[in-house]
Amino acid sequence: MSQNVTPYKDSGLGKKEQVAQMFDTISGNYDGLNRVISFGIDVKWRKKVLKLVADKNPKTILDIATGTGDLAILMAQTSATEIIGADISEGMMEVGRKKVTEKGLDSKIKLVYGDSENLPFEDNYFDAITVAFGVRNFETLDKGLAEILRVLKPGGVFVILETSVPTKFPFKQGYNFYSKNLLPLIGRLFSKDRSAYAYLSESASVFPHGEALNNILRKIGFIEVKNMPQTFGVATIYTASKQ
Description:
By secondary structure, this protein is an alpha/beta fold.
């Protein structure tokens, strides 16, 4: 199980409220900084998620922890007629809504407030559900995953894109140096929130990945669970379905 790492150590708020506050604070420069931090490789990973979803010809898609809507916007390339991006950060979604409007996708994509642990949707509603770099921010991982299982249609596809920790030399050592030293430094230089990128680095380092996350998904009730490491293991794509 993942350790309960939070953005603000001395805050009296719960993790959920802290995460919302953090993303509200960094929303204005999040997209640009994200490209710098990942060297732009995150775009390639998202395109792989797109293909996995598109191959299922979904009509309804939910993108949880949608942030500024990058993945939801990408999903407009699928056969879906209804795409909902859900997040607890209004600041991030405000940026996302502007992007959706600029691309002329208002009739297809809606970004709405949505708590992963209490989703405002009917059972068995979505053909596909995605989460990109968001599951490690869930306050209670099991509860969030159980909610996703509830609103996913039987036979639907669930795809997670999340950071992971390389296990092989020298990628493990390089990743550890980058995530513990360079990533927080870049965050401090470009973001007014000094804690945010330290949290993102720390939460990634302790979050279960690979077979550990596969087993959690199976325990919740997902079937056909598998993981696909990306770029030497610095990220992993997980796919699962529902009985």
